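Risk mitigation, structural track. In case the binding assays with flavin-adenine dinucleotide fail to produce interpretable data, a predicted complex structure has been prepared as a fallback.
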Amino acid sequence: MSKVAIIGGGIIGLCSAYYLHKSGHEVCIFDSNEVGKQCSYGNAGLIVPSHFETLANLGILKKGLMWMLNPNSPFFLKPRLDIGLLKWLIKFTSFCTNKHVQNNQHFLRDINLYSLDLYKDLLNNSDLDFTLNQNGLLMLCQKEKSLEEEAHVVNCAKKLGLNASILNKEDIKELEPNTSFNAIGASYFKDDSNIQPYDFIMTIKKYLLKNDVKIYENCKIQDFILKNNQIKSIITNKNEKYEADEFVLSSGIFSSQLSSKLGLNLLMQAGKGFSFTVPKNDALNFKTPMILVEQKIAITPYDSYVRFGGTMMICGNDLSINERRINNIRKYSNNYINNLNIQKKDMNDLWSGLRPCSPDGLPYIGKTKISNLIVATAHAMMGVSLGPASGKIVSDLINEKKTQINIKKMALYRF
Ligand SMILES: Cc1cc2nc3c(=O)[nH]c(=O)nc-3n(C[C@H](O)[C@H](O)[C@H](O)COP(=O)(O)OP(=O)(O)OC[C@H]3O[C@@H](n4cnc5c(N)ncnc54)[C@H](O)[C@@H]3O)c2cc1C
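Fallback model:
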């Protein structure tokens, strides 16, 4: 068995570490921060077979142009002179077609369902202690047009064999009798699930440490030493060298900077999003996670608090919190949920995260031309959903086993 070094301890790196350790490898993890404290921290934790439409789609192209002119919209692109952004945008727009969505919906369904099955397996073994809420997902609509669009998604979902339906106001009331929503209807995806992402990462971390996996935190990998087309060692910001037989690059949005040192050009842009939590109160007495369709706000209930998250800002690798966008999440949530009145003082754990986004909306997972390096990144809005699937695929690749999912669509050199 080999010694494997994982660069980046977000959900993708930790799931990879888990499956590699289980298959007998000596694993170590390097993270420039604390593990799980970047994009994998304050996200909505949704596991979404229902998200079989790629991020690049015709709808986002049409709405995106309108959203760009509206400072209160859920999407924002800050124009800047950057050749990487230009290349990404040209590719992204070329994938905003119905054909692209159709070509990838079976793949996205399959990999999400595979990951959900792996979550269920993890729940049933005694290594990890976490909660998997299997309460489905509501996509709440305030406008007729949105509900019509959701009806179309539901039809496609049914054709894909997913458990999906359209709910009217009474159906929503039946599902969530203790909360009142300002919505005309919703689509409902019964198989979708959710976790608390940081708790999940912490339980993997605890398991790995108990099993002598070394986790180097606050240890940034800056460079590589190559010999005969192989990485011999990685170099940290403290100028220390670590050797290993195999390397996994799972540094989220920072994977593209690091991989460029190895001549690999991963087209990626950060999609910045925000979240905050609010303690549970009478207006928040529901169990089904939901997305407010018109505003693209995700709301995930936990035992004692509810997390509100949203926004997609393409503005470089900048983590600053944008007051206006955060306030919009607060205001629109107050508008969709009757009797809810979140005030600024009620908002806890204010957070921003950089989604690593490829131009076609699919991850990058696979072997590189460097014989002992595997890349797993660009999970955009689905890193939690696809965490276990990605980790298992990474482990299968290192073990030279056939992956359960055909990974061709996630090829690193596809552009
Ligand atoms: C508001 C919001 C809501 C979201 N909701 C959902 C959701 O409901 N469901 C879902 O599936 N996804 C969701 N996502 C997306 C999800 O959070 C990401 O896809 C996922 O966290 C990416 O995981 P990662 O491991 O690739 O990256 P990260 O979590 O960013 O991990 C990368 C790690 O690499 C480390 N690193 C970086 N550079 C270096 C270096 N040079 N050396 C060593 N370490 C390094 C970082 O410190 C970090 O810990 C959401 C995102 C946002 C912003």
